[in-house]
Each structure stands twice: as structure tokens, then as C-alpha cells.
User: Fold these one by one.
Assistant:
Number 1:
Amino acid sequence: MPIAEPPVIAAFQDLAAFDLKPATASGGMDLRAIKPRCAPAAGGEIVVCAPDPEKERLRALPDTFVADEALPRARRDLGGGADIGVRLDQQRLGGVQSNRVMVDLNFKF
């Protein structure tokens, strides 16, 4: 089957058409940080800067925190060593997530 229209060929672009060309000229863009992360070194000091490791750390929960009780299990005893239960399940089938409801019937022997 022939192609209806040939693909468009991009026009040649030189450095003058490139957006960052003014950055190479003298008096161009100033790319320095607005606020330095560290204080400047004084005299012969060497300053080493690093992010605060405590900034993102999770703290222990306070003693006043109370977790909500979970729902009871959906399970019933049928007698004679058998019970039935219902649960939710997830499985990947062929690259697609399958959400399903499972019914479990258990016999003790």
C-alpha cells in the first residue's frame, strides 16, 4: 500500500536558531544559584555542604495515637469441621490487574 504523503523533512537549523545561543555571548544569561546552599568559606577553611538527613526522617508516633480496629474477618463456621469465608484478592493476568472476590470453603480432615 503506497504512502499517501511523504514524511516532512525538517529544515536545517544552525546555531543562530538555537534558543541558548545568547548564553554563550559575553554578558549573556547568569546561571548562578540565587541563594547559595552553604555559607562562604573564611580564610583557609573548607566548607562541605550536605542536605539535612533529619529533614525527611519519620518520627515515632506519639503515645496518644490509637489505631482504628479493623473489620472482623468475613468467615462463618458451618459445623462438622467446615467453614466458609469471603475475601478480596488482586492478581495480574496478562499484564492487567484483576480485582476479584474469592469465596473460600475449608474442610478440616
Number 2:
Amino acid sequence: MRKWLSLLVLAAYLATTLLAALFLPVGAQAQGGVKFSTAKIDIWPEFDRPAVLVIEHLTLAPDTVLPADLTVRIPAQATVNAVASAEASGALLNINYDRQIQGEWATLSLSTTSLDIQIEYYDALIKQGAARHYVYLWAGDYAVDSFAVQFQMPIEASDLQTSPALPNSIIGAEGLTYYTSVFGSLAAGETYMLTVDYQKATDSLSAPGLSVQPAENPATAPGRVTWTKYVPWVLGILGAVLFLFGLVAGVLYWQGRRRDSGGVSRQRHAPGREKTGEQSEAVYCHQCGRRAQLGDVFCRACGIRIRRGEQ
């Protein structure tokens, strides 16, 4: 009985441990030592909206334990366009995130199962006549081994000035000019600021018909199976199993206590009754002195009638 009870308790403990391992915050292991191997920042003003499209391409260090929990800050006034992770095929899939405003920052909390993530948002562009002004700020939430910036010059814009300088330039396939620079490593807590000024007499957009599309939703991606919708079922089944384990263990324990209690009681009182019976029924033959057995009428040795209650 106690062996079976011990096995049930052990099974319940293992089931509870498995439940905790599956559904507690699984990214906690990766929280402490997260850093980016690369961070490439695309800054596209007046691309498909009269604002600045910022695309942060972030790649976690190869030794990062996945899934990893991240907390990334963007400007509070910014409008998030997408938060996505890159699959092995290169496709971008939306990932869930929580957005909290803290002063001048909006904090994005997310969990990723991929080393490559992408954060897209639209930020405000300051216009004063033909003058354009924008300031990009990297909050320094994590260390970066290689930090790079790429600025897309808007169509019909001129007189670009940036601080720090973006000395390298290339012309893209669509005919727009890109100014780039690699700034090396940044420590955790180390910020980066890029100030941009240029002239543009019109409000025309670089790609009015090429609106940036959000990444695909993982729940609706073709051929993709997401396990998150099965979480309630798994939790329900494990909860039922744990309840049955507890119920059976309780019943067996209660029955075992009753059986043990009854056995002790019988062992405690039985010898006393036998001793009392032997003492009260002990009769000896008055002729030969042999002890008579309970129920004897005549002596088994001499055959004389046993006197009971007479001495």
C-alpha cells in the first residue's frame, strides 16, 4: 500500500515539474546575457508616408538560448508597423509583443524563437518649409558587436547633412541613394544618436504605391502549425491528471490509515482476552491433579467426573 502511495506521489511531482517546465516563462534562462551580434538600422524618411520609417534589423548572438525574452525601447510617439522574427526560409512572421509607455519611451516586451528579429515603426519628421529634420536615438538596451546605419535619401531631396557622418553611398535598384556607415560595437547602456537634415521642396513620397507590408501572421502562415492554440487543452489534461493522482492518493492513504489503525487495536487487546480466559477457566482433576481442557466433563487421565466450581 505504502509503495503504491509513494509511486503516486512521485508521479504527481513529476507531472507538476513537467507542467512548470512547459508553461512557466521559458525565456528566463536567456534574459540575463542577451546581446546582439549585429544591429542594422534603416532610416527611410518620406518613403510611403509623410513620416520616417525606421526598420531595426537585430540579430542575437549565436550562443543565445532560445526562446529569448527581449525588452526594446522605441520613441513613445512612434507607431509600430511590425514586430517580426525571421524563419530559416527567410520569411518574416509577426510575433506578439506588449507595449508600455514609460516617459519618452515605448517599451516593447517580446519573446523570440529566432535569432533574427525585425522591428518597424513610423516616427515623426519635423518640417519647416523645405527644411526637414529628424533625430534617431538607439536606447542602448543591449550590447551590440556591430552597429550600422543606412539612410535612404528621399526622392527630390538635396543638401543632406548628418551627424555623425555617413560617408559611404550606393544607388539602389529603385534609383534611390543610400548613405551608410558601420560604427562598431556598443556596450549595454551606451546610446547612439543620428541627426539628419536635408532640403525638400515638395511633399512627394519616394514610393507612394509601395506601402510597407506587415510581416505574415504565424497563425495564418501556409503550412505552419502553431502549438499555442493547444495550450489550453494541454493545461486542462495535465490538470485533470494531477487531480486524479491527488484523489487516488488521498483515498489510498485514508484506507491505509484505517487498516493500520484496526490491526493495531486487535493486536493490543487479543492477548489480554486469552490470558483472562485461561485464568478464569483453569480446572484440575481432584483425583489425579491433571489439568482439564475447556469443555471436558471427565478427566482425560483417570476418567473421574470433573468437579467445576467445587473444591
Number 3:
Amino acid sequence: MTGQENSDILGSIGKLVDAEKQLRARISDGTADEASAREELAALEVQLDQCWDLLRQRRARSEFGEDPGTARVRPAAEVEGYES
């Protein structure tokens, strides 16, 4: 089931990226209220970071013989606090 769950996470990432692109296009062409669109964009970026973090956790657990199913979505404050 690990592969399917990872695929589901990647699917969610794809949908979030599409939503982000559409929102950026609406901001760019002026069809979106900029203030609310920027808030929505920030929320999408946090969700994307959380999805990528979850996928990394799952892959690392799998690589080291642990159960990837024990990986959990971390709070936004924790994920956003990481440094690259």
C-alpha cells in the first residue's frame, strides 16, 4: 500500500500546484482580488510544503526499514520553520 499512498500524496501535490498556477494567473491578469488571492496563495504554499514533508518522511522511513504509514502531517509552524 505504500506505493499507492505515495501516489496519492503526489496526486495531491499536483492538484495544489495546478491551483497555485491558476491563482497566480488570476492575480497576474487582474481577475482575482489581490489581497484575498495572496492569502489563498500563502495557504496553498503551506499545504504544498506539508505534502512534500509528508512524502519525504514516508520515503525516509521506508528507506530505513520503518513503517512509512506512521508518518504524519506536521503542523504548518513546524514545516514552515525548516531552513533549506
